[in-house]
Design brief:
Layout (H helix, E strand, L loop, with lengths): L15 H26 L8 H5 L3 H4 L1 H24 L1 H21 L3 H11 L5 H12 L2 H32 L2 H22 L13 H24 L4 H23 L7 H4 L2 H29 L12 H29 L1 H21 L4 H29 L5 H29 L1 E4 L2 E4 L1 H23 L8 H20 L1
Antiparallel strand pairs: 1-2
Helix pairs in contact: 1-7, 1-8, 1-9, 4-5, 4-6, 4-10, 4-17, 5-6, 5-7, 5-9, 7-8, 7-17, 8-14, 8-16, 10-11, 10-17, 13-14, 13-15, 13-16, 13-17, 13-18, 14-15, 14-16, 15-16, 15-18, 16-17, 17-18
């Protein structure tokens, strides 16, 4: 791979502006991550009413979620690679811009086709977190990097916890388009703040962009995730689903072959297959599975009608408030995760986080009838997720050269996304299989929910074992040299200014 190539800071920049920008870099990047998670979550309370509002079928409306999932999975590694090559701030700003454009389109239209396209554009924002983490590596000194990366990783959970009650409140008391106008304004503010406050990284990896690899990865991921996300609706044994899975295997196998022979591959598979990197990706997939089941099942459980014997019949606003303590916990525990990683290493933090997630599901299995126990169990799972998600990018940063951090973290986020998609399909299959009629409507049984908790807890324990099997996570010599080159290039640029 190419050597990091420093870029110069624009001439004529005052010394006061860089100092102010340095202080704002972390808050601006973190707010971008929170906004991205909020933007992905706000559509959830709308889903039951969208068929009426858009005059479309429920199956068509579900594509507002599927489109975001597919585009986010495809664009995250692609934009990460583009950031390494053309500038991370530039690509980050473009991703936030696409997210904002998608929000404006949602605010202006009631046509389901336009809404689906808009949500696909918003999927580009999934690359915000890996790009931001890469910028933090390049711009911050080592003593500040760990806590900043931990906070950036936690923004996904924080934003998701904030987005659900916020969207429910807006929808309850205002027209649903108001919600998208609000997110559009926040998105535009985020774009402007990022362009002004975040310095362009001095590390680049020159070369030609791998267009063939991008198309191959996109085709393979679309086939895979479309099959996973639509299997429950179309039937897991249906010809369409089987054809999608066969196509995914064939396309991704050809893509792997092409990547190994490409001079400048989209994904450096030789790096991915190293145990320290590969096992980190496996742990990310398993953790994503375990984490996502918590949000899915908790929301359905507390909204279940009281006639089921276990449901609480809560509104969507009250449901969002039940998940809010988990978001606050993620914010509070992100610095704790950084301290544990600094003292014991991110591998230990990841394993501890996965174990805490399993403990949270044990609480859910012990009691899922009392509201306070439901909130406690969900909050414990959120705490473990904070520890695990905060440790994953640190593992990647220590295992890859500085010039590949955005693309490597993009692949790690992709693995989390795949884990979440598989979790959604698996939980749905369990709950559909264990359901009974309540008032003539099929509703999952409490036994089905407990099985889903047990499944997610078992996956969390497997993630813990995968984390413990990762080799020592000390930074490699080439990574340290790359980091030194990064800081040296930045210092030279500052002196020149």
């Amino acid at each position: 791979m190419g050597h990091p190539a420093p870029i110069s800071q624009p001439p004529g920049t005052s010394t006061a502006a860089p100092r102010l920008r340095d202080r704002l870099t972390i808050p601006v990047l973190a707010s971008g991550g929170i906004l991205m998670a909020v933007m992905q979550t706000v559509v959830v309370p709308l889903l039951p009413d969208l068929p009426r509002l858009t005059h479309a079928s429920a199956a068509t409306v579900s594509w507002m979620v599927t489109a975001t999932l597919l585009s986010g999975a495809v664009l995250t590694p692609v934009l990460g690679r583009a950031g390494d090559m053309y500038g991370k701030r530039r690509v980050l700003t473009a991703a936030l811009g696409l997210m904002t454009v998608g929000s404006v389109m949602c605010a202006l239209s009631c046509d389901i086709g336009v809404l689906i396209v808009a949500r696909a554009l918003q999927g580009a924002a999934a690359s915000v977190v890996p790009l931001s983490i890469s910028i933090l590596r390049d711009e911050l000194p080592p003593e500040r990097r760990g806590s900043a990366v931990a906070l950036m990783s936690s923004t996904v959970g924080i934003g998701a916890a904030l987005g659900l009650p916020l969207a429910a409140l807006v929808i309850q008391y205002a027209d649903w388009h108001t919600m998208f106008w609000l997110t559009s304004a926040l998105g535009a503010l985020g774009v402007a703040a990022t362009w002004w406050a975040v310095r362009e990284s001095p590390v680049r990896e020159p070369g030609r962009f791998d267009v063939l690899g991008t198309l191959g990865l996109a085709a393979g991921l679309v086939c895979l995730l479309l099959g996973v996300s639509q299997g429950g609706q179309w039937g897991w044994g249906s010809p369409r689903i089987l054809a999608l899975f066969l196509a995914a295997v064939a396309v991704l196998a050809l893509w792997w072959w092409q990547q190994l022979r490409a001079e400048r591959p989209l994904v450096d598979l030789r790096l991915v297959t190293r145990p320290r990197v590969g096992l980190s990706h496996v742990a990310a997939l398993l953790t994503g599975f375990a984490f996502y089941a918590n949000s899915l099942v908790t929301a359905q459980l507390v909204q279940a009608p009281k006639a089921t014997g276990y449901g609480l019949g809560l509104s969507i606003v009250a449901t969002g408030l039940c998940l809010l303590p988990g978001g606050v916990t993620m914010l509070l525990f992100s610095p704790v995760s950084a301290r544990i990683s600094a003292a014991r290493g991110p591998r230990v933090t990841l394993a501890l986080g996965a174990a805490v997630i399993a403990c949270g599901y044990a609480v859910r299995i012990a009691d899922s009838r009392d509201l306070w126990m439901i909130i406690l169990g969900a909050t414990v799972v959120a705490t473990g997720t904070t520890l695990a998600y905060s440790a994953l990018p640190t593992l990647i940063l220590r295992a890859v050269p500085a010039a590949q951090t955005a693309s490597a973290n993009g692949v790690n986020v992709l693995m989390r996304t795949i884990g979440q998609a598989v979790s959604s399909a698996a939980v749905a299959a369990v709950l559909v299989h264990h359901s009974s009629l309540v008032g003539g409507v099929p509703v999952p049984t409490l036994h089905g929910y407990l099985l889903a908790f047990a499944m997610a807890g078992a996956i969390a324990l497997v993630a813990c074992a995968a984390a413990l099997s990762i080799p020592g996570d000390r930074p490699s010599g080439d990574t340290r040299r790359a980091g030194g080159a990064t800081r040296g290039a930045r210092d030279e640029a500052m002196e020149g200014a």
